[in-house]
Design goal:
Layout (H helix, E strand, L loop, with lengths): L3 H18 L2 H8 L1 H5 L7 H8 L6 H9 L3 E4 L5 E8 L2 E5 L6 E6 L3 E4 L3 H17 L2
Antiparallel strand pairs: 1-2, 1-5, 2-3, 3-4
Length: about 140
C-alpha cells in the first residue's frame, strides 16, 4: 500500500494544479462536469444556468459552442475546450477563458460533448438573454 500512496498523492497534486491554472469559465464547467458529460434533459438545467448566469464574458460563446456540439473534453484531465477540426483524426483545442490554443490532439484522446435536441433547445432558451442584451 505504501508505494501506491505517493503515486496517488502526485496524481491529486497535478490535478489540483491543472484546475488552479484554469480560468473562471473552466471552473464553472468543472463544477458541473458530471452533468455535462452524462447529460439528460431532466438533469442538465443547473449546468446550463450556471454558465448562463456566471456573469463571465465567455458565457455566450460557451453556450453557442455547446449548442453547436463544438465542446470537447480532454480525457487526460477532464478539462473542456472549444474544438476545431484539423482533419478526420485531429482537433485543435482552444481555451474558453483565454482563447489560447491548448494544443492539437488525436480524436481518440478527446470526448465530444453532444447535447441532444432537447438539451440544445434548453441552451437556446438560455441564449435568448444574451440576444436581448446585445445591441
Amino acid at each position: 500500500m505504501r508505494p501506491i500512496f505517493p503515486s496517488v498523492l502526485l496524481l491529486l497534486a497535478s490535478t489540483f494544479a491543472t484546475l488552479a491554472e484554469a480560468g473562471p469559465m473552466q471552473a464553472v464547467l468543472q463544477e458541473h462536469r458530471d452533468l455535462i458529460v452524462e447529460s439528460s434533459r431532466k438533469s442538465i438545467g443547473p449546468a446550463i444556468e450556471a454558465v448562463a448566469s456566471s456573469g463571465l464574458p465567455e458565457a455566450h460563446s460557451v453556450l453557442q459552442a455547446w449548442q453547436g456540439k463544438d465542446i470537447w473534453m480532454r480525457k487526460s484531465d477532464g478539462l473542456f475546450f472549444l474544438g476545431e477540426r484539423i482533419d478526420a483524426k485531429t482537433y485543435r483545442l482552444l481555451d474558453f477563458d483565454s482563447g489560447d490554443t491548448a494544443g492539437e490532439f488525436p480524436k481518440r484522446a478527446l470526448k465530444n460533448i453532444k447535447p441532444n435536441s432537447g438539451i440544445r433547445a434548453m441552451i437556446g432558451t438560455a441564449l435568448v438573454r444574451f440576444q436581448l442584451l446585445d445591441p
